[in-house]
UniProtKB/TrEMBL annotation:
<dbReference type="InterPro" id="IPR050958">
    <property type="entry name" value="Cell_Adh-Cytoskel_Orgn"/>
</dbReference>
<dbReference type="GO" id="GO:0005886">
    <property type="term" value="C:plasma membrane"/>
</dbReference>
<dbReference type="GO" id="GO:0008046">
    <property type="term" value="F:axon guidance receptor activity"/>
</dbReference>
<dbReference type="InterPro" id="IPR003598">
    <property type="entry name" value="Ig_sub2"/>
</dbReference>
<dbReference type="GO" id="GO:0007156">
    <property type="term" value="P:homophilic cell adhesion via plasma membrane adhesion molecules"/>
</dbReference>
<protein>
    <submittedName>
        <fullName>Ig-like domain-containing protein</fullName>
    </submittedName>
</protein>
<dbReference type="Pfam" id="PF13927">
    <property type="entry name" value="Ig_3"/>
</dbReference>
<dbReference type="InterPro" id="IPR013783">
    <property type="entry name" value="Ig-like_fold"/>
</dbReference>
<dbReference type="InterPro" id="IPR036179">
    <property type="entry name" value="Ig-like_dom_sf"/>
</dbReference>
<dbReference type="InterPro" id="IPR007110">
    <property type="entry name" value="Ig-like_dom"/>
</dbReference>
<feature type="domain" description="Ig-like">
    <location>
        <begin position="4"/>
        <end position="98"/>
    </location>
</feature>
<dbReference type="GO" id="GO:0030424">
    <property type="term" value="C:axon"/>
</dbReference>
<keyword id="KW-0393">Immunoglobulin domain</keyword>
<dbReference type="GO" id="GO:0043025">
    <property type="term" value="C:neuronal cell body"/>
</dbReference>
<dbReference type="GO" id="GO:0050808">
    <property type="term" value="P:synapse organization"/>
</dbReference>
<dbReference type="InterPro" id="IPR003599">
    <property type="entry name" value="Ig_sub"/>
</dbReference>
Length: 104
């Protein structure tokens, strides 16, 4: 058995509105850890039909970055890798949306 270890951390990224983006996260451990993504402290649920997709290797893919008054993908993200031995947390990565910025 091996504790989970993050082998690739997500990096800060600046993405134009409506463009795709990927935040990487890779982990190893025995048994293979499950990866969960968090945004601003909240776990991300990638529901079917969502513009956010969890990639098989562990990354988080945005079909197109959303930035509206109702919802924005801008924020602080990290991933956690968990198996029965414990949890490893990645560094924080900030996603910024470039282009028109307005105050909510």
């Amino acid at each position: 058995l091996e504790y989970p270890k993050i082998t690739e951390h997500p990096l800060d990224v600046i993405v134009p509105r409506h463009e795709p983006a990927t935040l990487n996260c890779k982990a190893e451990g025995i048994p293979t850890p499950t990866i969960t993504w968090f945004k601003d402290g909240e776990p991300i649920k990638a529901e079917p039909g969502s513009h956010k997709i969890l990639l098989p290797a562990g990354g988080l893919f945005f079909l197109k970055v959303v930035h509206s008054r109702r919802e924005t993908d801008a924020g602080v993200y990290w991933c956690e890798a968990m198996n029965e031995l414990g949890v490893a947390r990645s560094h924080n990565a900030t996603l910024q949306v470039s282009g028109k910025n307005w105050k909510v």
